[in-house]
UniProtKB/TrEMBL annotation:
Residues 133-265 form the D-alanyl-D-alanine carboxypeptidase-like core domain. Residues 70-101 have a biased composition (Polar residues). It holds the Pfam family VanY. This is D-alanyl-D-alanine carboxypeptidase.
Length: 286
């Protein structure tokens, strides 16, 4: 009788032991499964494993592309150079990085006799088909403007554009010499030259944002018709007449009817609608 009880007790003990082990295995399996689920959730939420602090590579690439899009588009489009070759550069004040400028927007940077261009100013230029060069950032709007003009049988060209400081100095020297040849003293010749030619370092020609406009002789286009079209339409494409008649005391420069400056479409529309020049626009908006 004792032996039977002992065997029954041993079987019962083994049964409960196995039952306890099975229960522990179930608990461990549940815990392991829970941890796996948490890991998967974290991994899917932040595949880079750093709480998303670094953007995906595709996002960074897109940002870089945006920053260089203007230059790449303008330089790769052959028709742009063909069209812009009719455009010209005068003395405009957009896009300089002068420490005295009243705006950080490159399109609105003021360059004149009291706001010289910084010595370390740099520019990405695109050469037009006729050898003139402009700031690459304005080329898309310049092309759009010329296409619009040509669609109305108006054929403009850029007759002058970017100048180096050395070229601006040479222009000043030649102008002074011309006045001296006419009989003016050196002092008088210099004074008269500075009334029509910007001193080196204060010319918008050195920014690549200014163009002088003329009629394309290859199409028998007269300049007066081109300038009339520009006066009515240039602002739609971000360009304004930089030195309008009646604003000499504000701009500090003689009026020029062929000198256009890129300021961007928004600012150009305001300046056109209000009949104000760049200096006045900056004064009202800063």
């Amino acid at each position: 009788m004792r032996k039977r009880r002992t065997r029954y007790s041993e079987r019962n003990t083994r049964y409960h032991s196995r039952k306890g082990q099975t229960f522990q295995q179930i608990i461990l399996s549940i815990v392991a499964l829970f941890l796996v689920v948490i890991f998967l959730v974290v991994l899917c939420t932040d595949p880079m494993g750093n709480n998303g602090s670094v953007p995906p590579e595709s996002v960074m690439a897109a940002k870089d592309a945006d920053e260089t899009a203007d230059s790449n588009v303008s330089q790769s489009d052959e028709s742009v150079s063909d069209t812009a070759s009719a455009d010209g550069l005068d003395q405009t004040s957009d896009g300089q990085t002068d420490s005295t400028a009243s705006s950080s927007d490159w399109r609105l940077l003021l360059v004149n006799s009291t706001h010289p261009i910084a010595d370390d100013y740099s520019i990405d230029l695109t050469e037009l088909r006729n050898g003139q060069s402009v700031d690459s950032r304005i080329l898309t709007d310049l092309q759009e403007m010329f296409d619009a003009a040509r669609s109305e049988d108006i054929y403009p060209i850029v007759s002058d554009a970017y100048r180096t400081r050395e070229e601006q100095q040479a222009l000043m020297d030649d102008t002074i010499q011309n006045y001296e040849d006419e009989g003016y003293s050196a002092e008088e010749a210099t004074s008269k030259a500075e009334q029509v030619i910007a001193k080196p370092g204060t010319s918008e020609h050195e920014t690549g944002l200014a163009i002088d406009i003329a009629g394309d002789e290859d199409y028998g286009q007269d300049t007066d018709s081109v300038l009339a079209w520009m006066n009515d339409n240039a602002y739609k494409y971000g360009f304004v007449l930089r030195y309008p008649s009646g604003k000499e005391s504000v701009t500090g420069a003689a009026a020029e009817d062929d000198h256009y400056r890129y300021v961007g479409k928004e600012a150009a529309k305001v300046m056109h609608d209000k009949g104000i020049c760049l200096e006045e626009y900056l004064s009202q908006n800063n």
